[in-house]
Design brief:
Structural class: mainly alpha
Number of strands: 2
Strand order of the largest sheet: 1-2
Number of helices: 10
Radius of gyration: 25 Å
Length: 252
Amino acid sequence: GPNREITPSDGIIIDHEIHEEGEIHCTICHNRTAHPEDGFELTNFDPTTGEPNQKHDDFMTMTACFRCHGHDADAEAPGDCLACHPEDFPLKPESHEEEGFYPAGHAELALEAQESQESAEVTAMAVSEETHEESAEEGEAHLPTVGEVNECGTCHTSQFCEDCHGIPMPHPVGFVEGHGELGSEEPEICLTCHATESGPEEFCNNCHHEGSDPNITWIDQHYVLVRENGAEGCFDCHNPTYCAECHVRGAQ
């Protein structure tokens, strides 16, 4: 109401007028103000599925803001940090300050965020199909669920990751189909993440040379696995004349 004094939390700058002009209703952001569910354990069950009831999404979180906000040029609303946070606000999350966060920790956090996002997208799609939801009316913005927002993306653009890794990150759909060419041309890019204590061979062998010993050069042991398992699997990557380079022509 007009007599309500706006009292945003410390470290938050909210332009309520611009949201009002855009007809953004209060509950788009403030859905858990009256009924917070922190520390609340659900014991009821959905009578139709028998599954435990789920807590509601909390729209007063960073990821929820990015249902509309975003860093990309085509975002519904700008995602510049200083648009919502004062200059003295500590932008770096606590997780980034923990020992071991970089390099191994940040990869684990990014993977967890990606898996959570993908799971939420699958769930949202299933719900949409089950309830036969129609597409949003023309001119009406579709808001993803909170879980569909990648947490890392609330601070970092995809270009931020690509500038460091040298390739699109996380790997896009279909990446595995052409990754061999990239690995041959610029193996150092792959080694940034996939080098293990035993060397890069261990990671690659998990898919390409299953059953091999990463501590032994592949050429020195490949005949053993071929003898035991046959050569059929070799042709998933190599053409039939590949073996002839050594076995018939005597190449070194």
